[in-house]
Amino acid sequence: MDENTGSGLVSSEGDGWVYLDHAATTPLAEEAVSAMRPFLEGRHENPSASYGGSAKRAVEDARGKVASLFDTDRENVIFTGCGSESDNMAVKGVFETEDGDHIVTSTIEHPAVRNACSFLERKGADVTWVSPDEDGRINPSDVENAVREDTILISIMHANNETGVIQPLREIGEIADENDVLFHSDTVQSAGKIPTPADEIGLDLASLSAHKFYGPKGVGALYVRDGTELEPLIHGGGQERGLRGGTENVSGIVGMGKAAELALADLEERKNRLSGLRERLIEEVRGRTGARLVGDPENRLPGYALFCFEDMSGPEIVEALAERGIAASSGSACHSGDPEPSRVLKEMGVERKYATGTLRISMGRKTTEEDVDKVVKNLEEITEEVRSSK
Ligand code: PLP
């Protein structure tokens, strides 16, 4: 079992596997590869060099494309090394900069935010951890009740990586605004899949990762609203408006820009198509295997569904699917193969007999109805086999 993908196989689209683990990572779009190639093969100049015209222009062009995901200007985008770095930069950067030490976050954040907040607790921060309801949603009034005079930051993710449940960000943005508190959101799973307009949502900071929307791995970005002060995580030579030292990963950034452009170009069409496939999947899996859907049925990412199979092992279902040529995950990629129920499901109050049998299916732009039918048919057979062997 590959502990990073939980799928036990190395797969890309078009190689015969049905790849349904897009929440873990997506393949690199061919268009992104083509855009990156000149910067891998010949155009090697440093974007900061005075003669570095074409590299600098390419980075700035990509910055504009990534900014479009947030419906904002390029000045508000800082390139980083990954989504985890962006999360750390936001949370730790605000703590280092702002007067006050109270942070409000949730118990279902990705470990990049959760562990950054725990680290800050050890450094003297006071963190209020808001729990979700049984549908995996954070109640905005719980966030409002947690805010105090000395609150410096609210950090709530846009869509959860395990359940796909979308959080009520606009309401939380209003609370942040009314209380004059900075608002960060981990938009790693949502950006490029649903609209993420920073001003409309009321975001001051938002994290991105290219490999979740058909860009390369190892490149991320942080939306930093103009005027937001932030201490850098990586001090260095003044790159990225002095907020992130280090020579930029030019080819990666160019690939990210291309991927952002592609994601935006057919966002609505893809959103509708994947929502339709998701509904078909949910209805069929529930009807033919008796599995439960975990999390809010309405507010969820297109193409994402998390199922619970009573008294079964999620990793075993994932392995059985892999043997039949289907890549999926037993929940959070980082926890795959771990028989302990995930923290997110515990927080949602999912009973242990269900929480150990989870299967996350996350579709992408090349997923078809035939792929959905194939996974449903195989799940029906697998669950029947498991039940009859008991
Ligand atoms: N935040 C969320 C919600 C994620 O799903 C992930 C990756 O799974 C990350 C952050 C981390 O992104 P990266 O892999 O680029 O560090």
Automatic annotation (TrEMBL):
Pfam families: Aminotran_5 (PF00266). Gene3D superfamilies: Aspartate Aminotransferase, domain 1, Type I PLP-dependent aspartate aminotransferase-like (Major domain). It comes from the Archaea. InterPro entries: Aminotrans_V_dom, Aminotrans_V_PyrdxlP_BS, Cysteine_dSase, PyrdxlP-dep_Trfase, PyrdxlP-dep_Trfase_major, PyrdxlP-dep_Trfase_small. Its cofactor is pyridoxal 5'-phosphate. It is an enzyme of class 2 (transferase). Residues 18-375 form the Aminotransferase class V domain. Keywords: Iron, Iron-sulfur, Metal-binding, Pyridoxal phosphate, Transferase. GO terms for molecular function: cysteine desulfurase activity; iron-sulfur cluster binding; metal ion binding. Its EC number is 2.8.1.7. The keyword Metal-binding applies. Belongs to the class-V pyridoxal-phosphate-dependent aminotransferase family. NifS/IscS subfamily. This is cysteine desulfurase. It comes from candidate division MSBL1 archaeon SCGC-AAA261G05.
